[in-house]
Structures are given as C-alpha cells and as structure tokens.
Design a protein that fits this description.
Layout (H helix, E strand, L loop, with lengths): L1 H27 L26 E6 L5 E7 L4 E6 L8 H16 L8 E6 L4 H4 L19 H6 L20 E4 L2 E4 L8 H13 L3 E7 L3 E3 L11 H12 L3 E2 L11 H7 L4 E6 L7 H15 L2
C-alpha cells in the first residue's frame, strides 16, 4: 500500500513539473506580430476602357438595323446632335457626328458640368448602307466609293421613304425634294426610324436639337406654322455666329413638308438645321466652334 502511495505522488510531481515547464515556454514566447494595414494610395483600375461611353439603341430601321444614341457627360440638360437622316446621300453628316464623338471621348472636359451631349450619328442606316459596307460602324471619307447616283439612292430608308418628310408638321404623303417628288410615308411617323426618334424625344425632352444636313452652307431656324419655341432665335444665332455659316429664319428654296426640325418646334423643342457646304467635307473646325458655343450658351 505504501509503495502505491509513493508511485502516485511521483506521477503527480512529474505531471506538475511538465505543466510548469510548458507554462514557462508560453510565457517566454513573444506574441505574433500583426501584418500592417496597407492603405491604397491610388484608385483601383477597372477593366473597362475610360473612353467607353454609354449607348442607347433607340430603335430599329425599316431594314432591321440598330439606331444608336451615344451619350457624353453627366449633366441633367441634354443637347442632341443628329446626322445621317438622309443616309448615303448625306454621308458627310454622319462622318461629322463621328468626329464629334471622337473629340468628346478624348476631351470630356469640353462638356459643361450641367450638360449631357447625345449624338445619333446615323438616323437612317438603311440609306447609309448604300455607300459603306457596315452602316453601323465608324467609317472615313476614303470608304466612300459609290457613284453619285448610288449615293442619291441612299437618301431614303428601306421602304423608299424620305424620313425628313415623315414627321407631323405640314405632313403630306408626297413631299418635294428640289424638283422631284419623294414619299412622305403612309402617315406621319409611319416609319420605324421616325417613331424611334419621336419616342426618344418625348421621353427625354432635350433642351436643344441640332440636325446636320447637306448641302447649302447655312444655319436654319425651325417653326411649324406660327409656332416657334423659346430659345430658337438664340440657338440659331449662336451656332451661326460661332461657325461662320449664315443664319436664316427659314428654308425657302422649295416647300418642305413633314420636316423633323419643324415637328420639334411644334412640340416646343428648339431645333436647328445646319446644312454643310457640300456633300464631301465635314468642315470640322467651323462646326466645332458652333458646337462649343451652343454648349456654352445652353449651360447658362
């Protein structure tokens, strides 16, 4: 019995010694050092290119092609620029729109803080398809190899309707272009392109719309009957004075029915027609001065 008690006491002493030894090691081991918190000094980069801009497909053409609006700037007041309503016949107006898009992508600071610029470079992609391989892509003047007669055939959409005779101001089923008769469609807004544009305008209510046409070399105000919206005269004079194009109260070379800018005037949206001097050049420098002056004026 005595031997058993001695054995138990020895085991207890050995266990106590082991415990004290382990505790000493724990007390002597320094605590782990936490890794320092690193605060990033630069904004994380994204995989999305900084030049990429939001776009809106506002509708389809009669031939099923997308009609796309490109947006620049984040202001609440929208200014809309439109080219290519006459497709391949006025391809230089689409090219001018693309030049504006290129510039705004590279120089976003050119847009006043309270302004959003929207560009629709090709309102009639069916007509533009007569002169370029891909009417939805950026092109250059060197890509235009079609004859003048083919370019003229690109004035209308896939339904052979002149889109600038299809809007609801003095509309007629048969319109005039120079000495020729052109189709104004079966009714105002009978064409999908016109409907798409109408819906976009009515949903967004832009502060001003600038349409590019060719060719006459001038800036023309718009009206529908006696209706001329507030700001129309200032918009016309601002663009004309800065660009160097002469300003005109209306277009008098021949009667125009169903005109898009006149319809815009009818619903109270100031809009002007800027007619380039010819069918080949974009006259970028002149038009940029007009654009810049317009953005400054409408941002006040």
């Amino acid at each position: 019995m005595k031997n058993l008690i001695i054995a138990v006491l020895l085991l207890a002493l050995i266990g106590l010694g082991a415990f004290l030894f382990m505790k000493r090691d724990l007390l002597m081991t320094p605590p782990p050092v936490e890794a320092p918190v690193v605060v990033p000094t630069t904004t994380p980069t994204t995989t999305e290119p900084t030049t990429q801009k939001p776009t809106t497909v506002i509708g389809k053409s009669a031939g099923g092609r997308d009609i796309t609006a490109y947006h620049y700037g984040t202001g609440e007041k929208e200014i809309l620029f439109v080219g290519g309503i006459h497709g391949g016949y006025e391809w230089n107006t689409s090219l001018l729109a693309y030049e504006l898009m290129d510039y705004l992508a590279e120089q976003p600071q050119a847009i006043p803080q309270d302004i959003k610029v929207t560009v629709i470079p090709v309102l009639n992609p069916d007509g533009l398809s007569k002169v370029v391989a891909d009417p939805l892509a950026r092109f250059t003047a060197a890509d235009i190899t079609a004859s003048q007669s083919v370019q003229t055939s690109g004035r209308t959409n896939a339904n052979n309707v002149d889109l600038n005779r299809n809007f609801d101001c003095d509309w007629k089923t048969e319109g005039t272009w120079r000495n020729a008769k052109v189709s104004g469609g079966a009714a105002p807004f009978s064409e999908p392109e016109s409907i798409a544009f109408k819906n976009y305008i009515e949903e967004g209510a832009p502060a001003g719309v600038i349409f590019w046409f060719s060719s006459a070399g001038g800036v023309y105000a718009s009206s529908c009957g006696d209706t001329m919206p507030a700001g129309m005269a200032e918009l016309t004079e601002t663009y004309a004075e800065a660009s160097g194009y002469p300003a005109h109260d209306d277009f008098t070379s021949y009667a125009v029915t169903g005109d898009v800018t006149n319809w815009l005037a009818k619903i109270g949206v100031p809009s002007i027609s800027v007619l380039l001097t010819d069918h080949e050049n974009t006259e970028w420098a002149k038009n940029w001065r007009g654009i810049q002056a317009t953005l400054t004026s409408l941002s006040r």
